[in-house]
């Protein structure tokens, strides 16, 4: 899917919101605003379009499906869902786990993607396929069954060459990489907060 990058801009300028634009509310015990986070997560899935293979469609759809589960709960109980943490706590009170499980899997999927891109940024000689395989092994793979693993394996094998991927991020490679690095750094911080919080919920999925 081709995207129109503005002159002098980067691929991230085409997103409605990036993770850099998601505040962390210290006054709410590092609460993460639900609306802003879901908008950033939706926007971030367009990175898979840049990878240019239908093999990544199931990965993208999985992330978007989990976004929908969380947003459905937010729409059903907006006053109780201002932050992701509040949304989960209030859903737990009514003995439901749909959105909570959605957030758990969304967090895992974003952790996988951020670790893959972080590895690729940090290791200039690594191809994307290597970075994604390494990240998959330490994030999603332990939670996937024998039916899901081949789908993700196919996606790993379908990643483009490193140079081709970065060329799609913008004409100014240094600028594009700096923006990517900032986005991933913000996502890593958010994922860390969510992983610590979800560990206290005790879901067995």
Automatic annotation (TrEMBL):
Listed Pfam families: GLTP (PF08718)
Record keyword Transmembrane helix present: no
One GO cellular component assignment for this chain's record is:
membrane
User: What is the top-level taxon of the source organism?
Assistant: Eukaryota
Entry keyword GTP-binding:
no
The alphabetical list of record keywords is: Transport
The protein's matches in InterPro entries, at most eight in alphabetical order, are given as: GLTP_sf, Glycolipid_transfer_prot_dom
Give start and end of each Glycolipid transfer protein domain.
32-171
Q: Which GO terms describe its molecular function?
A: ceramide 1-phosphate binding; ceramide 1-phosphate transfer activity
Q: What is this protein called?
A: Glycolipid transfer protein domain-containing protein
- What organism, scientifically named, is this protein from? Polytolypa hystricis (strain UAMH7299)
């Amino acid at each position: 899917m081709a995207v129109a990058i503005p002159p002098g801009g980067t691929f991230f300028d085409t997103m409605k919101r990036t993770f850099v634009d998601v505040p962390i509310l210290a006054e709410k015990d590092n609460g993460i605003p639900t609306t802003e986070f879901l908008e950033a997560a939706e926007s971030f899935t367009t990175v898979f379009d840049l990878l240019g293979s239908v093999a990544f469609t199931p990965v993208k759809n999985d992330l978007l499906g989990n976004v929908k589960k969380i947003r459905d709960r937010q729409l059903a109980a907006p006053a109780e869902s201002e932050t992701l943490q509040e949304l989960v706590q209030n859903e737990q009170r009514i003995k439901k786990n749909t959105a909570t499980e959605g957030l758990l899997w969304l967090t895992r999927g974003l952790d996988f993607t951020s670790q893959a891109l972080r590895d690729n940024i940090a290791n200039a000689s690594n191809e994307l396929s290597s970075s994604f395989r390494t990240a998959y092994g330490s994030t999603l793979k332990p939670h996937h069954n024998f039916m899901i693993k081949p789908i993700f394996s196919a996606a790993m094998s379908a990643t483009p060459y490193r140079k081709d991927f970065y060329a799609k991020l913008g004409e100014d490679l240094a600028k594009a990489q700096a923006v990517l690095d900032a986005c991933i750094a913000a996502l890593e911080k958010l994922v860390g907060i969510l992983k610590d919080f979800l560990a206290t919920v005790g879901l067995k999925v």
